[in-house]
Design brief:
With about 240 residues, the chain is of the alpha+beta class. About 45% of the residues lie in helices and about 15% in strands. β7 and β8 form a beta hairpin.
């Protein structure tokens, strides 16, 4: 009987957390600010107790869970309406590199090491810290980087080149070996057309793991068998 109750409580806890995540929205997940972090940790702890702590009644746990959900939602709502509250609840972006100079005092306050900074810069394809004009730690923990003018990539605008055509949004056709019929229908494509494209590449539908129409209009196929003799890294 206890096992069945625990299973039902766990299912209920998972369902409630999914509903709460939908209510709070994607921004809470994607942009983990101070109050978002506190809300997620607290809600997670309450939900864990709801799942397996039989000594506390479900009514008390639900009341606590709904109360904290309401607090998190109200904080998010008022933060959107008031910039001062948003600044207090979420914090402010912090400059780590200004005019090519590392701001050591800000780094110490945020407890960010040079190793961490270099790691983040490498994630932005910047391997030389001297190429950075500005680096800013954003509210969600990510670092935004402005390279120095001489280190910025050249664009078509810089070369006064006109775009031949407007780039389109990629259209996924096959994912995990399954044809995405909804995407075919939305873009006036048929399975027959897809099969013909697969045949042009000398492939068979059973061997295709992923297929997409890229933004430039080309169709890309990825097979289950990569046919790489010496993979760089294999788990």
């Amino acid at each position: 009987m206890e096992l069945l109750e625990t299973m039902l409580r766990s299912i209920s806890a998972f369902t409630l957390m999914m509903l709460i995540a939908r209510i709070l929205g994607k921004s809470t997940i994607a942009q983990m600010t101070y109050h978002d972090f506190v809300a997620v940790i607290t809600l997670g702890a309450i939900t864990a107790n709801l799942a397996f702590n039989n000594t506390i009644s479900i009514g008390i746990l639900l009341t606590s869970l709904l109360t904290f959900t309401g607090i998190a939602y109200l904080l998010m709502f008022f933060s959107m309406k008031n910039r001062k509250l948003r600044s207090w609840f979420s914090g402010k972006p912090t400059v780590l590199i200004q005019e090519g100079k590392i701001m050591e005092s800000n780094m110490k306050k945020l407890k960010i090491t040079l190793d961490t900074l270099n790691q983040e810069l490498r994630g932005k394809n910047i391997f030389n810290i001297q190429d950075v004009q500005y680096a800013v730690l954003e509210l969600n923990g990510s670092i935004s980087v402005l390279p120095k003018p001489e280190s910025q990539p050249v664009t078509r605008k810089d070369l006064h080149l006109k775009n031949q055509s407007e780039p389109a949004f990629p259209i996924e056709l096959i994912m995990d070996g399954d044809i995405i019929d909804a995407n075919l229908q939305q873009n006036d494509l048929t399975r027959e057309w897809l099969h013909s494209q697969i045949k042009k590449k000398g492939l068979s539908i059973e061997n295709v793991n992923y297929a997409v129409i890229s933004s430039n209009g080309n169709v890309y196929f990825d097979e289950y068998k990569d046919q790489i003799e010496h993979p760089v890294d294999k788990e």
